[in-house]
Amino acid sequence: MMHKTWLVMRNEILTNVTRRSWLLLTFGLPLILALVFFARPLLTGSAPVSSSVSDGSSSGSELDIEGYVDHSGLIRTITEDLEGKLVAYADEVSASSALEAGQIAAYYVIPADYVQSGHFTYVYPDFTGFEPQGQSWVMRWTLLVNLLDGDTKLASQVWNPMDLKVTALAAEPQREVGTGWEYWVPYATGMILYMMIIMSSSLLRNSMGNERKNQVMEVLMLSVTPRQMLTGKLFGLAAVGLLQTLVWAGTGYAMLSLGGQSVNLPAGFELPLSLVVWSLVYFVLGYTVYASLLGGLGALTGPNQMGSSTADFVIIWPLIIPIFFMTLLIDNPNGTLAVVLSMFPLTAPVAMMTRLAGGGVPLWQPVLGAVWMAGAALLAMRAVARVFRTQMLLSGQTFSVKRYFTVLLGRV
After folding, report:
1. SS3 265
2. How many other β-carbons are positioned within 10 Å of the β-carbon of residue 178?
3. Span 60-159 CATH architecture
4. pLDDT one-digit tens code per residue, 8-53
5. Contact 285, 372 (CB under 8 A)
6. Neighbours of 182 (CB within 10 A)
7. Is 89 left (phi over 0), alpha (psi -120 to 50) or beta?
8. Alpha-carbon distance 393 to 215, whole Å?
9. Where in the chain is the domain with CATH 3.40.190?
10. Helices marked H in 26-172
11. Using an 8 Å Cβ cutoff, are 185 and 272 in contact?
12. Cα 247 to Cα 264: distance, rounded to the nearest angstrom
């Protein structure tokens, strides 16, 4: 039995990873994005310029040397972190000559009426659609400091006047709710798991649909059991989906690293190993449930039969529900709605992982949720195996959502 399951699994992996469309999506798309990301150095032969947004506290070693021509007489103070990075010139001719000689990367012209107009000119010769502002924040910061008579503390407060965080009014201390990493890490975790499950499950739906259309499935059923075929396809396409995700994630990380960018996590932040483990558990279980249901749909309808798109939406709709309540799941991870959604097998993958990424979830809840999902996965596999056995595979009857769920429940 295991040998035939392995053969089906190996066939699915080899068939998909050698398919031109899969190779283009998995490797071609990241390659195109990389070319776009590095378009300027590829076209001009120059190194990528790191750009950032600062409040005046960035390290000067990361900045290009730039010049300025101050017709307003406003600039009297250069902050310590920008010393040596802003060079004064008497006129625009001198600044332009220095730019052409490569002594500076760009220069600013501050007009005499700057205080009234609020405008200055930034001469940045390497202008592209990808970096339209260069590091012009440097002069904005410098002008702000000088307008405030060199008071850098007050300038920092004016530059970033409010760091808003909202806390719930309660008798006991509650964790802070905001728009920082406390919000985006759980949000990204839930969304990534959702996309991984949908994309990987769609592979099985398409595989079954194509085999239904080409009548390959009927031939396979003569040599393998429905359960062997489904199990082999599930594991094979799960490996294909994970490989695709790893390629995309690795490409994104490489682009950030080579481009001189970094993900600035808060001090002391680290990704818990338990979160990685639970992510794998809930991905496998969620994928098994949804891939089985979508695979059964493909077996009945083929790739494009009328009415199947409605069934696709009906099947994946429960997985979308937690996304509508994502903010509530993050703000109140132990509320009644959050617990119910993370226990119901069809909504559990996204809901539970969103809560776990935020922290504070009792251990028994992800364990119980995984048990419920494992049970749902087994029921889904049995039901879909029943679909393979039904004579509707060869009957040619018109597809309907009602008929599909009737077959799943074994009433045909």
Report:
1. coil
2. 14
3. 3-Layer(aba) Sandwich (3.40)
4. 788 878 887 888 877 887 888 778 877 776 665 555 444 444 433 3
5. no
6. 19
7. beta
8. 9
9. 60-159
10. 29-37, 39-44, 92-100, 114-117, 137-147, 152-159
11. no
12. 22
